[in-house]
Structures are given as structure tokens and as C-alpha cells.
Amino acid sequence: MVPYKIVRAPNGDAWVEANGQQYSPSQIGAFILTKMRETAESYLGKTVSKAVITVPAYFNDAQRQATKDAGRISGLDVQRIINEPTAAALSYGLNNKEGLIAVFDLGGGTFDVSILEISNGVFEVKATNGDTFLGGEDFDNALLEFLVSEFKRTEGIDLSKDRLALQRLREAAEKAKIELSSTSQTEINLPFITADASGAKHLNITLTRSKFESLVNHLIERTRDPCKSCLKDAGISTKEVDEVLLVGGMTRVPKVQEVVSEIFGKSPSKGVNPDEAVAMGAAIQGGILRGDVKELLLLDVTPLSLGIETLGGIFTRLINRNTTIPTKKSQVFSTAADNQTQVGIKVLQGEREMASDNKLLGEFELMGIPPAPRGMPQIEVTFDIDANGIVTVSAKDKATGKEQQITIRSSGGLSEDEIEKMVKEAELHAQKDQERKALIDIRNSADTTIYSVEKSLDEYRDKIPSEVATEIESAVADLRNAMSGDNIEEIKAKVDAANKAVSKIGQHMAGGSGGGSTPGGGSQGGDQAPEAEYEEVKK
């Protein structure tokens, strides 16, 4: 229930329509940044052209890219994008405080939790987690829905279709939420909220803190799992956490503070201002970039794993989540078919084993690969994440030097649940994912074995007895039949049988000595690397 219209943009994004105009999320962000820049310029008496912008730690690449776009639209040169919990820790640690710090950041639209270690001026993020669709707005909506249902129950009028009434209700809900952080009850009084045939209608409700807490308890409980996952990823227990910092206006809610104490086993610190700590940290980062603040080093991490789709639809990770950034990682792959002259690179972000279950960030083609047997070309795929957490991916044919790269940009709409669901779904479906991955891996291995065995048979058929050739063909047929099923152990057994059958070529060529290597490398078929439209080549 929002008092404005959401429309579908040509590229699939959700845009806002107002006064007959449609605006992208980056444009809306730019309006806010422009107002902030004007306010800063008025206060400072000088032009502001550069900025450090904070974002939720769990923002994905597309969201970070959209943030940079908003800065550019507003006329700002975005020097750095910094994660909000990290910025808060910078503010906290400026006075030479050290130790393991947990930053619990519940703001207006997002929730983040980060574990950092501060030591000798080095701020190292150990792990981060969160929910990009949990924040104060959700608390407002819960209270808004309660007010709408109460008014309908008492007056028989549904206010959810009245945009003006909704806007007044939303403002009243936010005001009541704030007041209930310091008082036990509050009055929500909205005269002339609507009218019917009998005359004007007024809304007057007394709301207690306990009632408000019951309405939003399910939202507060959603902060528990990200905190537990973050501690697990950081490899520490709650006892090892020295301080818990509260960031974001929603952490002023007493029930939120109570749950934080339960999660970490200690009362949160009052050492930072929840509303100012992030901005202060961004200012410190700006000072570091200008050289005004020295002897401070910030080591942040990427929140989600990055990789590509490989043969069978598997997600092959190149950079794991919680890797310190900036970072660069390369891996060599090869073609999956003879005389393949191009490969498609699908860039993904997430934690599931299957590519289709992760977020597709972008895709591109590397073309002009010289025709060669499969497995021969060496294609080096490189992921480069800068200090802003923005990804550039390149693919290079090592033989010709031909290279293609892409800076990942938002090309379509983001599902509201995609990011926070990735890790949770990975845990819920881990066993099923592993089984699917294992089956695809053994099928890929079997396919490679068949290719190698048949190649050897074609090469030596006229040099070996017909019964040996028949035995090899039978073993290959059995392997193909096993591959059509889902029995991993049976496929493994048939791979071994095919390798054993083809080894008789070597035995025959060596005069029956029985020890030689297998022509064509058939016996190595079970150890091949995963294939994309290409396969990994061991360096």
C-alpha cells in the first residue's frame, strides 16, 4: 500500500510514476543526493563535487551500480561506495578502540550485520550478512495495515484505496512508532480521515507499546538468522565479540535492543549515535581518500559468491562470499566441443549450487577462437572486484590474445526477495543441491570418458582383435545407458568398466604386457574438470 504508482519500465525495472512522468530508482536516488549536496554546499559555502556514499552491506552488484549511477545523475563524482556497518565501525574505532565488533544495522529499508576486527588502525571485515528488504518501512507497513483493518472494523470503510488517507496514515504510523520508543502508549488522532453519506469520519486509536511489539515481532525475529550466519562465517562465538554497536533509527526500538541482547549475550554499546555513525564513518573514509586521515586501513568484503555457469548448469565459484576486496581471481577453462569457435560467459552471484538458482548479473560472448579439439583451447576467465564492490569480468583466449570483458551493470529489475533468500535457500536445499551437482559432475566425467575411449578405438581399431573392439563398444553402450539414469554409483562403475576395457588397447599394443598407458588418456576420464560451455584446464 503506497500512495504513488509503480510502473513497469521497458527493461523490466520497477519505476515510479508521478505527475505524468516515470522515474527510475537511480533517478529517485539522484533527487535525494541532489538535495543533500545542496544542503552541504549551503552549509560549507563552497561547491561539493565528490562524495563517499554508504550502502547496505548486503547490496548486490546491480544495486551498487545503480547507486553510482544516482551519484552521477546528481552531478557527484562517487569516490567510494562503503558498506554502512563498516562506516559505523570506522566512526567507533576512530578513538583507537580495538577488538572484535559486531555492527547491528537496522535502518529504514534494510538490515545488515557485520563482524569486524579493529587492530592497530586496521579495520578488517570478517563477515557480513543481512536482509535488503527488512527495515523501518516494514514496521510502518505493519502498523499501517493494523490501522486500516481497525478502521474498517469500526466504521466499515476500507481506507486502502484512498491514497490521501494512506499517506496520512503512514505518517501517523511512523510518528507513533517513534513515540513508542520512549513512551508506553500513544494516541493516533486523524480527524476527517474520510467521509461517507453520514458525514465526516475521524480515526482515534490508543496504541500501547506491547500492542506495537506484537504487530512487528515477526519482523524483529527475522534479524536472528542473519546474525547467526554472520557469526558462523566469521568463525567466532558470541563470547568472543567485544562490543555490539547499534546503527540505524530502528535500533532505538526497545524490543529490537532486547533481541540484540539475546542474540549476542550482552547489552549493546551506547558508544555511537545510531543516526550519525554511518555518516561520520563515510566522512572518515573521505578523509582517508584525500590523505587527511592517515594510519587507518579499511578491508571490506564481498557479501555474495561470484562465478560463472559451467556445463550441466552448475554454478562454478571464482570468488567466495566474504572475500576481502578489492580482489582479482582468474581461472582457465576450455571448450566443450570440437572446433568450437566461441563461448558464452554467464556471470552469476549467489550461494546455490545450480546456476539457475542464483542471480544472473550479465552475460557476454568470447568469439574468434581458432578451431581445435575440445579441451585444447585455454580460455582465462578473470573476475575483478574493485573497492566499491563493483565487478568486471573478462575472458581471454590465451593462444590468440583475443579478449572480451564486461562491467556488470543492472540490465533488468531485481526481485525483492532474491538477495536475502540466496544464503537461506542454499542452507535449506544444500543436500539436494549437492546431489544434483554430484550427478551432473559424474555425467560430465562419463561424457569425457566416452569421448576419449571412442577416439582411441577409432585410432587403433585396425590394430586390435575384433573381440577387444566389441568389448569396448559394449562398455561404452553400457555407460551411455547408465548416464540416462540417476544412479551415481552405477555410472561410476560403468566409467571404470569403460576405462578397463579401453586399457586392453594399450596391453595389446605392448604385446600383452598389461601395464602401458592408455592411448587417448581414456583412463583419466573420471578426473576431468567441470565444463561450462567449456571445461577447466588444470594449470
UniProtKB/TrEMBL annotation:
<dbReference type="Pfam" id="PF00012">
    <property type="entry name" value="HSP70"/>
</dbReference>
<dbReference type="GO" id="GO:0005737">
    <property type="term" value="C:cytoplasm"/>
</dbReference>
<dbReference type="InterPro" id="IPR029048">
    <property type="entry name" value="HSP70_C_sf"/>
</dbReference>
<dbReference type="GO" id="GO:0005524">
    <property type="term" value="F:ATP binding"/>
</dbReference>
<keyword id="KW-0175">Coiled coil</keyword>
<feature type="coiled-coil region">
    <location>
        <begin position="159"/>
        <end position="186"/>
    </location>
</feature>
<dbReference type="InterPro" id="IPR029047">
    <property type="entry name" value="HSP70_peptide-bd_sf"/>
</dbReference>
<dbReference type="GO" id="GO:0140662">
    <property type="term" value="F:ATP-dependent protein folding chaperone"/>
</dbReference>
<dbReference type="InterPro" id="IPR018181">
    <property type="entry name" value="Heat_shock_70_CS"/>
</dbReference>
<keyword id="KW-0547">Nucleotide-binding</keyword>
<feature type="region of interest" description="Disordered">
    <location>
        <begin position="504"/>
        <end position="539"/>
    </location>
</feature>
<protein>
    <recommendedName>
        <fullName>Heat shock 70 kDa protein, mitochondrial</fullName>
    </recommendedName>
</protein>
<feature type="compositionally biased region" description="Gly residues">
    <location>
        <begin position="509"/>
        <end position="525"/>
    </location>
</feature>
<feature type="compositionally biased region" description="Acidic residues">
    <location>
        <begin position="530"/>
        <end position="539"/>
    </location>
</feature>
<comment type="similarity">
    <text>Belongs to the heat shock protein 70 family.</text>
</comment>
<dbReference type="InterPro" id="IPR013126">
    <property type="entry name" value="Hsp_70_fam"/>
</dbReference>
<keyword id="KW-0067">ATP-binding</keyword>
<dbReference type="InterPro" id="IPR043129">
    <property type="entry name" value="ATPase_NBD"/>
</dbReference>
